[in-house]
Amino acid sequence: MNRYVLGLILAVIALAACAGDPPAVGSAAPGFNLQDQNGEWHKLSDYSGTWLVVYFYPKDDTPGCTTEACSFRDNIYAFQGMGAEVVGISLDDVDSHKEFSTKYKLPFTILADVGGKAAEAYGVLTDYKLMKIASRQSFLVNPEGIIVKHYDQVAPDTHTAQVLADLQALMATEPPASG
Q1: Residue from 65, 87, 94, 147 carrying the catalytic annotation
Q2: The domain 3-173: what is its CATH number?
Q3: 27 with 146: CB under 8 angstroms?
Q4: Which pTM value belongs to this model?
Q5: What is the mean pLDDT of residues 91-110?
Q6: How far apart are CA 5 and CA 74, in angstroms?
Q7: Alpha carbon of residue 3 to chain centroid
Q8: Rounded-to-integer distance, Cα 105 and Cα 30, Å
Q9: Comparing C-alpha atoms, which of 150, 125, 145, 143 is closest to residue 135?
Q10: Per-residue pLDDT at 178 exceeds 70
Q11: Stronger pLDDT, 178 or 36, i.e. the higher one
């Protein structure tokens, strides 16, 4: 077995071993209070009454993360047309998020989870090459703050289309938010 394959196997094992359990579908989404790419604070409760896509990703300006972010960017009008918000979260800092957001003209919020508390609460915090990262996973949260879909296997180039299709289906079956 070559070193690359062995390293890949060990990385996958480490990812599985380090991540805690994500919250179950049907449970309340864990709260957060994090700064965005502009230094403004955002809490989960800010999105109450709105469909919310919370997507975690490992690192700003890396190939898969850029592909995924740009796909959300390119489909933002579809999400907004459904009344949904998109929030990306990684352990990168505000300055890194600002550069990433500016470089790719990202029209949605990216939150800096520098301490990894949100990633840990969502069960996506993991060790990778001697550093902590958020594994690439997403959660679809309904207007009442309940997780209605968890994506633990995310392909950066097709994920957005999958989320849009699921969002459309779920919106058709769930009663409108009261209040």
Answers
A1: 65
A2: 3.40.30.10
A3: yes
A4: 0.85
A5: 97
A6: 34
A7: 31
A8: 28
A9: 125
A10: no
A11: 36
